[in-house]
Recover the amino acids of this structure.
């Protein structure tokens, strides 16, 4: 269904892709016309990035076919996709900072004779490419001195100079200023006028309204609907994004008490220095942090736990104001933090379940300055039982366990210290369904003993089922707070995408 | 049996094979004079290798070991003979200097975030330069004085008529016991291993990673200083231009041979001592065996270390493959 008069350039049919434990894409359809700007929107984990990676040759689909110019297109690698004219511009830009602009634009395709770069020709080519994106800088300019917006344009110039006909932009504006965003839109308009097609992925629905000719909405790896130019509105997109019937995946048993367990006042983080966050979590309460990727949830939790101390603001734990500059200090006042990436930040993968389980309790378990093997073993076994970690024994190497069991080990490490407040970042990421439910029960049981939980999650069901309250973050601030009776996926999504409460 | 026990046994086997082979090709090898000499050298290199192991366990590197040895080794006789310091002042002073340099390395690495390679490479240059500058690049020695002090380096406890247990061996035993207790039995030792495995995970577990890293560098330079003192007491004099030169590489090589991974988080003191012994036996064998050209010493040592590290890598991959299989079976 491309615009009249414009041929269909790319057609993807029945694309499916499975990752261990999750169906990332399920028979997804997508069409792109010549000179069309197609926006692909959806929640975190809806399958947008996976679909784009498949189109750009970074991953291969399990099923489905792609037609380019009506011809079957079997893309096996990024270079194949590029030579067919498809270029993906990543969210994290991939420019070589140590090279100048011209070298970046022509990287890997430098005009050369006998291995020597033909400098003059290279400069001409680079200048032409830069002109096509309206970037008025010399090819010799250092990339390291450029802002994010200019770098983005260099990336686009790089793609165009390799004769890209389809540009895929993944969250191109996430680190741009308003003025830079406007420049980018003008370039996109320019590209469209010249017949280059653009697939535009963004969480920022306002931008999509402004730029897109058509919108495809994905939800849970499936096509959730599409909108033609005249139908594209913020509300219409949100409705399609959340249209699922969100079921409660877990029934809470406890309720919050009056007393504050954790209170944050005016926390300002490096990621969003312009905004402050204040919130409180009462004893016995589970508070969910909702928001899209980059909303500042992880940074907030990391700041509270002292990993990257906040620029400003105060933290109160159980009514006492605390100075938290290191994780050690956070731990001493009764905080515990389960990081998002358990392999990098949570576990010593080559070490045993026991070593990992007791890591935060070593001092408490020691006799004087000496570690106590028996006490460590007792604690590890107790926690293995309590959390039902599926491992042959406490000396099993953690790296060989399943994701769910690994996560239980990290949780166990903290529950062993009996903390006042549990801070959890995506506590069930990469965890199978069974273990998910167990983790929910652990969270529920923890608060029933008077602890408090503050958790960030990208899974709507998890937030709605577990939380007593949900704070929705958007670009570094709390865009809204919902009580349990107000929980509603559409409201959360509106707030998370910068809209207002319906 | 843990992976590190296997490594220690492996390098011990290699040591035995080298000893047996050398004793077949050389009559002198098993003489009590040669064994005493070997033990003394093993002890001296063992002490600095244990220092290197601390830094390697936390995932760092120290290239300044040889220059710290040079600075301390030159300063001690210089202070004693040319400035008339008493040993009671000079020895604590130079040992304290070693610790201080390590503290400085640790602070630069953790507080300023400079790479360990760079910090200690600069240390290598600076301390060598200082040693040569302070002494005017002249050889400094004890000139026959301080025999009781020199006992710690070149003395020994007579066991039989022809064999005395070299005094540095006693120092090594003390250092080794303390290090094993520290690394294997205290909370801090465990923290160091955790930091080497994953600094981020250690930090997320509330461990003060910078304090422990500073401590590791301080221990390393402190033991280098101790090594420098013993080396100069053994030799009797020090030439600033090459005293202790390349010793950091011997120390790192012994640590790696003995089971330390340069990735961090692995290592055993016993293995490191065996590694140091293997290095010394190899050097000894090259000197003693007629048909090995003495000039190839470095090449032989290089090949042996490379072989050891290659074997370690093969072992690691096999373990990783097993881990993947285990995971797959569970899923």
């Amino acid at each position: 269904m491309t615009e009249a008069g414009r041929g269909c350039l790319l057609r993807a049919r029945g694309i499916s892709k499975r990752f261990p434990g999750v169906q990332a894409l399920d028979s997804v359809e997508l069409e792109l016309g010549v000179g069309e700007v197609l926006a692909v929107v959806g929640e975190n984990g809806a399958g947008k990035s996976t679909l784009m990676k498949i189109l750009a040759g970074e991953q291969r689909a399990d099923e489905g076919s792609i037609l380019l110019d009506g011809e079957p297109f079997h893309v096996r690698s990024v270079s194949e996709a590029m030579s067919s004219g498809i270029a993906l511009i990543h969210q994290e830009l991939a420019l070589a900072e140590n090279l100048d602009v011209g070298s970046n634009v022509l990287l890997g395709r430098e005009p050369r004779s006998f291995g020597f770069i033909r400098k003059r020709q290279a400069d001409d080519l680079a200048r032409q490419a830069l002109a096509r994106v309206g970037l008025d800088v010399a090819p010799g300019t250092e990339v390291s001195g450029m802002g994010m917006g200019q770098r983005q344009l260099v990336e686009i110039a790089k793609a165009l100079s390799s004769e890209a006909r389809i540009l895929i932009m993944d969250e191109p504006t996430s680190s741009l200023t308003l003025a830079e965003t406007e420049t980018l839109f003008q370039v996109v308009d320019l590209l469209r006028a010249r017949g280059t097609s653009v697939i535009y992925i963004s969480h920022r629905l306002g931008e999509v309204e402004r730029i897109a000719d058509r919108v495809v909405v994905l939800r849970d790896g499936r096509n959730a609907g599409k909108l033609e130019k005249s139908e594209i509105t913020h509300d219409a997109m949100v409705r399609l994004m959340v249209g699922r019937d969100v079921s409660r995946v877990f029934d809470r048993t406890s309720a919050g008490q009056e007393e504050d367990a954790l209170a944050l006042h005016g926390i300002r983080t490096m990621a969003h220095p312009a905004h402050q966050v204040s919130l409180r979590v009462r004893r016995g309460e589970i508070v969910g942090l909702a928001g899209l990727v980059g909303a500042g949830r992880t940074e907030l939790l990391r700041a509270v736990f002292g990993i990257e101390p906040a620029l400003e603001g105060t933290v109160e734990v159980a009514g006492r104001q605390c100075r938290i500059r290191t994780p050690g200090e956070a731990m001493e006042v009764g905080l515990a933090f389960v990081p998002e990436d358990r392999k990098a930040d949570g576990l010593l993968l080559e070490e045993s379940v026991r070593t990992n389980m007791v890591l935060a309790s070593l001092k408490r378990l020691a006799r004087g300055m000496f570690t106590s093997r028996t006490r460590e073993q007792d604690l590890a076994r107790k926690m293995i039982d309590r959390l039902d970690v599926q491992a042959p024994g406490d000396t099993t190497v953690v790296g060989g366990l399943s994701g769910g069991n690994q996560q239980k080990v990290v949780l166990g490490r903290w529950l062993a210290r009996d903390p006042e407040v549990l801070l959890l970042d995506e506590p069930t990421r990469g965890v199978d369904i069974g273990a998910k439910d167990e983790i929910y029960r652990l969270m529920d049981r923890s608060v029933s003993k008077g602890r408090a939980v503050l958790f960030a999650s990208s899974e709507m069901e998890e937030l709605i089922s577990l939380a007593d309250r949900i704070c929705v973050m958007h670009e570094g601030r709390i865009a809204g707070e919902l009580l349990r009776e107000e929980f509603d996926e559409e409201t959360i999504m509106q707030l998370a995408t910068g809209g207002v409460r319906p | 049996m843990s992976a590190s026990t296997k490594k220690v046994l492996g390098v011990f086997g290699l040591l035995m094979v080298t000893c047996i082979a050398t004793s077949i090709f050389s009559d002198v090898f098993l003489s009590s004079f040669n064994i005493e000499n070997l033990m003394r050298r093993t002890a001296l290199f063992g002490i600095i290798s244990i220092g290197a192991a601390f830094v390697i366990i936390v995932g760092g590197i120290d290239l300044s070991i040889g220059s710290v040895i040079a600075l301390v080794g030159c300063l001690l006789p210089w202070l004693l003979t040319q400035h008339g310091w008493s040993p009671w002042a000079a020895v604590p002073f130079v040992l304290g200097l070693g610790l201080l340099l390590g503290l400085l390395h640790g602070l630069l690495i953790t507080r300023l975030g400079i790479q360990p390679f760079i910090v200690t490479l600069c240390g290598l240059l600076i301390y060598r330069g200082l040693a040569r500058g302070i002494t005017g690049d002249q050889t400094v020695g004890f000139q026959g004085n301080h025999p009781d002090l020199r006992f710690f380096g070149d003395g020994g406890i007579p066991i039989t008529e022809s064999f005395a247990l070299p005094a540095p061996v006693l120092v090594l035993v003390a250092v080794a016991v303390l290090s094993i207790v520290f690394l294997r039995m205290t909370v801090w030792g465990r923290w160091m291993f955790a930091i080497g495995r994953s600094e981020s995970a250690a930090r997320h577990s509330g461990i003060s990673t910078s304090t422990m890293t500073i401590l590791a560098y301080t221990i390393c330079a402190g033991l280098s200083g101790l090594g420098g003192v013993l080396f100069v007491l053994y030799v009797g004099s020090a030439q600033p231009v090459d005293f202790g030169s390349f010793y950091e590489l011997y120390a790192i090589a012994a640590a790696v041979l003995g089971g330390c991974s340069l990735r961090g988080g692995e290592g055993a003191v016993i293995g490191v001592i065996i590694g140091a012994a293997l290095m010394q036996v190899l050097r000894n064998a090259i000197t003693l065996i007629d048909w090995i050209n003495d000039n190839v010493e470095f090449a032989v040592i290089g090949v042996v270390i490379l072989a050891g590290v290659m074997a370690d890598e093969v072992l690691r991959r096999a373990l990783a493959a097993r881990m993947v299989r285990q995971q797959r079976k569970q899923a």
